[in-house]
Design brief:
The complex is a heterodimer of chains A (69) and B (272). With 69 residues, chain A is mainly beta. Chain A has a single domain, classed as Roll (Ubiquitin-like (UB roll)), CATH 3.10.20.30. Chain A contains 1 helix and 5 strands, in the order ββαβββ. In chain A, strands 2-1-5-3-4 form a 5-stranded mixed beta sheet, with no helix packed on it. In chain A, a hairpin with a 2-residue loop joins strand 3 and strand 4. In chain B, strands 3-2-1-4-5-6-7-8 form an 8-stranded mixed beta sheet, with helices on both faces. Chain B is globular, with a radius of gyration of 18 Å. In chain B, helix 4 packs parallel to helix 5 and helix 4 runs parallel beside helix 10. Chain B has a single domain, classed as 3-Layer(aba) Sandwich (Rossmann fold), CATH 3.40.50.720. With 272 residues, chain B is α/β, with parallel strands linked by helices. In chain B, strand 2, helix 5 and strand 3 form a beta-alpha-beta unit. Classes of the chains: A mainly beta (69), B alpha/beta (272).
């Protein structure tokens, strides 16, 4: 098991794990409506399947929020 | 030169009393020109608080008229205003709160052909819009024009905001491009708790006042998010991305883009 931080909360995950799989595990129902940062760096969605999660990684899902009117 | 009247000193006394603001800060507020794009859920509290604070000139862009379904959160519009252009309704309330404010109204949509012309007249832009095409347009136009802006987004029980100054992370640095139009829930489709608009809009208004008075740390390189269900607030560090399409080292976007607008499905929910 590896300790990582998802949206500011500590989590334990089984490695190996890709970023795409982590997104699925976190029940992101509309992946097209999130932007993802790993260790505060933006990760293009085309790279999600290739990114391997490592011990200590901090992952943030930034949700698109389009409302305002 | 501080040429406030007795009445103005009384009106702004609670600002002037603040050590970080004072008469000097209030004068900066009075000299400020702010553009508010969207006179809706966010634009309403932003405009009301900026007017009350004594911002010298406020521009408001909105093509719509007030609808009954707006009144649940767009607190600048009253029941009597249903059917009235939002910019006119907003101007009336701003002047009622503070006749010192000069108000410019733009009863039109912001798009690629008018954005830079409108924005150039102002020192700071507030995004109070309800769709991604315009949010990206505001971002790109402000980056191109070197203008600071406050981004705001709300949905259901959630809100997010950050402040951009030239050189700091822009919206594209961490959201890159608009989501596919078909995937997007807007307020009219997904709903929004009315008070969320006030929570986020007043944060944006506070950022504007901080910017002009130079007080504290702005929400630059940080995305503030909150969930009103749990009342948890979080600021997520975000970075200027060197590969950013608009503000990076080799920008690939050299003109403003009008992205496809998701269609409003409000009518489907209306009783026939």
């Amino acid at each position: 098991m590896a300790k990582i931080i998802v949206n500011g909360e500590a989590k334990e995950v089984q490695l190996p794990l890709t970023l795409s799989e982590l997104i699925k595990q976190n029940n992101v129902s509309q992946p097209e409506m999130v932007s993802v940062q790993v260790n505060e760096d933006f990760v293009d969605r085309t790279e999600w399947p290739d990114i391997q999660i490592k011990e200590g990684d901090a992952v943030d899902f930034l949700y698109f929020m389009g409302g305002g009117m | 030169m501080f040429d406030f009247t007795e009445e103005q000193i009384q009106r702004y006394s609670r600002h002037i009393l603040l050590q970080d603001v004072g008469v000097e800060g209030q004068e900066k507020i009075q000299n400020a020109k702010v553009l508010v794009v969207g006179a809706g859920g966010l634009g309403a509290p932003v405009s009301l608080y900026l007017a009350a604070a004594g911002i010298g000139r406020i521009g408001i862009v909105d093509a719509d008229v007030v609808d009954l379904s707006n009144l649940q959160r767009q607190v600048i519009h009253f029941t009597k205003d249903v059917g009235v252009p939002k910019v006119e309704s907003a101007k009336e309330k701003i002047l009622a709160i503070n006749p010192d404010v000069k108000v410019d109204t733009y009863r039109e949509f912001l798009y690629s052909a008018n954005a830079l012309d409108i924005i150039k007249e102002y020192d700071f832009v507030v995004d109070g819009t309800d769709n991604f095409p315009v949010k990206f347009l505001i971002n790109d136009a402000c980056v191109m024009a070197g203008k600071p802006f406050s981004h705001g987004g709300i949905l259901r029980f959630n809100g997010q905001t950050f402040t951009h100054l030239p050189g700091t992370a822009c919206y594209r640095c961490f959201f890159k491009e608009p989501p596919p139009a078909g995937a997007v829930p807007t307020c009219s489709q997904a709903g929004v708790l009315g008070a969320i608009a006030g929570m986020l809009g007043t944060i944006q208004a506070a950022e504007v006042l901080k910017y002009f008075t130079g007080v504290g740390q702005l929400l630059t390189n940080r995305l503030l998010i909150f969930d009103a269900k749990t009342m948890q607030f979080r600021t997520i560090p975000v970075k200027h991305r060197p590969t950013c399409e608009i503000c990076g080292e080799h920008p690939t976007i050299d003109h403003l883009i009008d992205y496809e607008q998701p269609t409003c499905e409000l009518k489907k929910h209306k009783k026939s």
